[in-house]
Design a protein that fits this description.
6-stranded parallel β-sheet, globular
Amino acid sequence: MSSFTASRILVFGGTGTIGRYITSALLRAKPAFQQVVLFTSPKTAQDKAAQLDKWKAEGLSVIVGDLTSEADVTAAYKGVDTVISAVGRGGLQHQFELLRLAEASERVQWFLPSEFGTDIEHNDKSPDERPHQLKLQVRKFIRENLKRLKITYVVTGPYFDMWVNTVPGFEVAGGFLPDQKKAYVIEDGNGKVGFCTMSDVGKFVVATLKAPGTSFGKALKVQSFIVTPNEVLAEYERQTGAKWEVIKTPLDEIRAFEAKKWEEEHPLATLVTLRRIWAEGGTLYAQNDNSILGLKPEDLDSLEEAVTKALAAGR
């Protein structure tokens, strides 16, 4: 495997929240990959036909099939050497079978599971965090069952593009409202958080695939920038030319709100837990892995660029 080069890439979930950024980055990679293939369902092929046609014009191949069909997945694996799973939380359970079939295949050599987001093995509290449980089970399955397949996790931390959003009824969990010039921050706003912009997630995945020797068997921690909520607020104020109202919520209140939402079995309880984890330092490391992938700050989005994009999108 020392001479392995990722050349034929298959993506699951490639039209989703983060998957579309990964697919776009794969298609624009220089030098180009020999083939980029998207596995998608008949419904998605119909609903997102315009996006798929655009990507096809850029060189994408599309396989329409059933993610839960062993025959469909096995057939898709015959022509590729590397698989990226970008399935969302609602599809994480399918990875056990995707991994089993990849291990049994003759062609697939490398698999990147859907780990884009929060570090599920960051500290001694991580094993007990509710949102982490299925991803932890996937890692356990990999450790106990896979012998041949190479695995790499690309751990990005929170997506800045989504972190700045407020959710009605959940404002205390943080976010920014440009139209109201209002910011919600946890604690005093001085706790550092490591972010990735969604476009940079695509860059990090491409850089990972270009460096198999560096990436095999690792959980790579990558970040666009590390800033405090107050620094984000200052950038919003600078770019909007206005002073914003700031509402601060102590961590203890966030924890109580989080517990209440889990007790109510609210579907957004996960959001509160993740934002509490990030505010507690769950994105920080002595050193990230950007440099081993050859990515420098100038290759990635800055805070200024990220806020400019957020404002353009109304966030």
